[in-house]
Write a structure and sequence with these properties.
This protein has helices at residues 2-6, 8-22, 26-44, 61-67, 79-92, 95-107, 113-128, 132-149, 154-165, 175-184, 188-216, 235-260, 264-286, 293-317, 323-340, 346-379, 382-391, 396-411, 417-423, 425-434, 439-450, 461-469, 489-512, 515-518, and strands at residues 475-476, 483-484. It is mainly α and 593 residues long.
């Protein structure tokens, strides 16, 4: 009994892992473990030697945990339904289809052009939706048949689609970054700023892999045939439009700088982009033919999502809006974009609201279960056990980071990223903070690592999403009339392996180059480089006191006389001091006459 009582924390954690491996729902596994071990802990408390601090009245804290600032009244988590709703409305609006078609035409003439387009659009969808499922399903439905039609390798095509969809995990406004910021007790805006560069670097690594494969195995990703390039040529026209936009933006910046200061660059860029967007629309509607068809389509399709990205992320980074307010503005922007395309209907809104409710309820139930579990786990000093276990790893901070990343990478085979964020992160954060690790950097590092949970065969959710929309049986291509072979589950799994390796490389780069994340702090000032200067005043020494040697002050004149500090100060026109009263003769009795 004493052994069990004094080792309740590791037994409780191992029991939770067993429950999860059996397949019991995560939220109920957390709550059931918490309540069961609370009952056991109260009974074994006398045998624990003070290591168990549980009593029945402690259960009264649960309602406060549920309705307090950690769950129901948590303003930070309110951003999750907003961003989810925004992503689903955008997916229903056909934005992904338009982007993939247009960017595919732009990159089509080069080998691997469709793969580049998928990664580029995946990054854009990640920056507008923040929902992995929406990105993977949309690109699987739209781009996978096109890639198979033109002879792309099935493993490469499925791996590119699944990996680019998971960029929504790390590129803001990612839902997991919101949860990580909440669990680490840090600002969501700082977490977004810190994750931006790692997300872009990971996108470049994906494109680099496609480039290398296009050189090593050119037949695995052929260029689009000429008859498939329906928008024709016009890259030079696009470059001219880009130069004109930059020139107009710079001119507007110079004009607005005297009146608007630091905001002039943003206003100038907005003016330039808005001008070229209006010109493209007018050129297409009125048939002026100043631009090529390709240039018109790229400008008209690309600028609205970029404007939405600025509306959401730009306002957050500039401090104009909180993440919750940014999500609300993004939801309104998504509705406007869907309405502008004529695809906003009551059914679309119903589907978006239903999906948002399901995801938000899923997150909320896991968080409630996590609060029950943590109440008991902290009561048996589990947090102290985990902190001692992690801080005692050999290698100090480096050993801690390696051990934690191996643990998260292993658990990602079995747990979803939300489950990892609610179960593991609250246990890791105190140890990281004690070792002096910046928690924003630590959170971004964990976010990159948790991204692998979507790509791990055989339980990766991105692989499941792609499997649900990829062809299972042979089918006839509607354009060419040829029979297309199906995509097997094995091909999807093997296609994901290289991108999991790239994600692991990204974890190493984040550890090796922390400044990719730490730039969120801005420029730090070393206090030792600050020079304090006190202005000199005529007739005074540098510290404002008369010269100690009685010499005349600089500039002529006589030095002021040293004041007599034994007398009270005189204020000029005050009444003369009264003569001192005579001292009484204490040798005689007092007289009251």
């Amino acid at each position: 009994m004493e052994f069990i009582a004094q080792n309740m924390a590791p037994i409780m954690f191992a029991s939770l892992i067993v429950f999860l491996l059996i397949g019991y729902p995560v939220a109920f596994s957390l709550a059931a473990n918490g309540l069961m071990f609370f009952f056991i802990g109260v009974l074994l408390s006398p045998y624990s030697g003070g290591s168990i601090n549980l009593a029945w009245p402690l259960l009264h804290a649960l309602p406060d945990n549920f309705y307090g600032s950690r769950v129901m009244s948590n303003d930070t988590l309110l951003a999750i339904p907003f961003f989810t709703f925004m992503g689903i409305v955008l997916e229903r609006s056909g934005m992904a289809e338009d982007l993939l078609d247009t960017i595919g035409q732009l990159f089509g003439p080069i080998r691997g052009g469709l793969a580049y387009a998928v990664i580029f659009v995946g990054a854009l969808l990640a920056a507008t939706t923040g929902v992995v499922a929406a990105s993977v399903i949309a690109m699987g439905l739209i781009s996978l048949p096109i890639m198979l039609r033109y002879g792309y390798d099935r493993r490469l095509a499925s791996g590119v689609i699944a990996a680019s969809g998971t960029l929504a995990q790390i590129i803001p406004p990612s839902l997991v970054l919101i949860v990580l910021a909440d669990q680490l007790g840090r600002s969501v805006g700082d977490m977004y700023a810190g994750a931006l560069i790692p997300g872009l670097v990971l996108t470049v690594l994906y494109m680099s892999y496609v480039l290398i494969m296009s050189i090593i195995r050119p037949n695995s990703m052929p260029a689009l045939p000429l008859e498939a390039r329906t928008l024709g040529h016009g890259v030079m026209s696009l470059l001219v439009a880009l130069v004109v936009t930059v020139a107009l933006s710079y001119a507007a910046y110079r004009y607005l700088a005297p009146a608007h200061g630091d905001n002039a660059d943003i206003l100038g860029a907005t003016a330039g982009v808005l001008f070229i967007y209006i010109v493209a629309i007018a050129d297409k509607r009125l048939n002026f033919n100043m631009m090529s068809r390709l240039t018109q389509q790229v400008i008209i399709v690309l600028i609205p999502p970029l404007a939405l990205i600025f509306l959401v992320l730009g306002t957050i980074f500039l401090g104009i809006a909180t993440p919750t307010e940014g999500g609300a503005m993004g939801s309104v922007g998504a509705l406007i974009m869907a309405a502008a395309k004529g695809r906003l209907s009551l059914d679309v809104v119903k589907q978006a609201l239903a999906s948002t409710t399901r995801l938000s309820s899923f997150v909320l139930f896991i968080l409630i279960g996590a609060r029950v579990f943590s109440l008991t786990f902290y009561g048996v000093n589990g947090h102290i056990w985990v902190e001692h276990l992690l801080t005692s790893l050999p290698g100090g901070e480096t050993g801690f980071l390696i051990g934690v990343n191996l643990l998260v990478f292993f658990l990602a085979f079995f747990l979803d990223f939300f489950e990892l964020a609610f179960i593991i992160v609250p246990l890791l954060a105190p140890a990281a903070d004690k070792l002096g690790i910046d928690l924003i950097w630590f959170g971004v590092l964990l976010g990159v690592n948790m991204q692998t949970s979507f790509m791990h065969p055989p339980f990766g959710f991105a692989l499941f999403y792609l499997r649900s929309v990829a062809a299972r049986v042979p089918y006839l291509d509607r354009l060419t009339g040829k029979q297309i072979a199906p995509v097997t589950t094995g091909q999807i799994y093997w296609g994901a392996v290289p991108f999991v390796c790239i994600q692991v490389i990204m974890i190493g780069l984040t550890i090796a180059f922390p400044q990719m994340v730490m730039h969120y702090k801005g420029t730090t000032v070393d206090p030792g480089t600050i020079d304090y200067q006190v202005p000199e005043m005529p007739g005074l020494s540098p510290l404002g006191t008369p010269p100690a040697d009685g010499t005349a002050p600089a500039g002529g004149g006589t030095a002021p006389a040293t004041p007599d500090l034994s007398q009270p100060p005189s204020f000029g026109d005050s009444a003369p001091a009264k003569p001192a009263a005579p001292q009484p003769d204490l040798s005689q009795p007092p007289s009251f006459n």
